[in-house]
Amino acid sequence: MSGERVKRFKRDVQRFFWLPPDVSRPPAPLWPTVRVWLFCLAVGALCAALGWEEEGPFVMMTVVLLSLLDDVSEGVRHGRPAFVAALACGWGVNMLARASVPSSDSLWGEYGVDALWTLVAMATFVAVSRLPRR
Prior knowledge:
The chain is mainly α. It is built from 5 helices and no strands. The longest helix has 23 residues, at 107-129.
C-alpha cells in the first residue's frame, strides 16, 4: 500500500474508535431503537410460532447486539459504557427470568423471557447514553 493509503486507513480506523474531541456526541436515538426492538419482537414471535427453538433467541440477540454496536460506532455519548451496561443488565434479567419462570414445553414462555431481556438491554443503552457529560 502506498503511504497516502496507509495514512487514510489509519485515520479511518482511529475515527472509528476515537472520535475527535470537538465532535458532538448525541445520545442514542429513542425511536429507531424502539423500531429495532419491535422488529425483534416480530422475528421472535415468528420463530416461536414456527417452532424454531434455537433460531428465535439467536436472531433476537444478534439484532440487538448489531443495533447497539451500530450506535456505538456512530459515536453516541457514553457509547462503550452504555454497551457494557446494556449487556450486563440484559444478561442479568435473562438469568433471573429463566430462574423464576417455570420451564414448559411452550416456546412462548421462552419468547417472553427473550422479549424482556432485549427490552431491558436496549432501554439500559438508551438511558446510559442520555446521562449528562462530565
